[in-house]
Specification:
Blueprint lengths: L2 E5 L2 E3 L5 E8 L8 E6 L6 E6 L6 E3 L7 E6 L4 E6 L8 E7 L4 E2 L3 E5 L2
Parallel strand pairs: 2-11
Antiparallel strand pairs: 1-3, 3-8, 4-5, 4-9, 5-6, 7-8, 9-10, 9-11
Length: 114
Amino acid sequence: QVQLVESGGGLAQPGGSLTLSCVTSGFSFRRSHMSWYRQAPGKERELVASIGIRSNYTNYADSVKGRFSISRSDAKAMIYLQMNNLKVADTAVYYCSAGMGVYWGQGTQVTVSS
């Protein structure tokens, strides 16, 4: 059974930081491209960051470049999203995904507000 479980969301102030984690099981994590997506109320889901097999590349949405960092641990079958200098516009439900949308987690809410 494939499982992706996100954690680490919550409330942060503008300029603050949060780290999201996603623990996975049930598929070949080491061979999987992994990504973080987000969906704000009334908006379409968008790709935030992605990381290749063995971390051979990373990609970021323009809106988060220089502020967010994606990483992975093949030993733990986990990915992470370090989010710094958070903005109100980062408020959304954040989803972990494997294989470019083949598998999805349930999401974790990130709210940035003063």
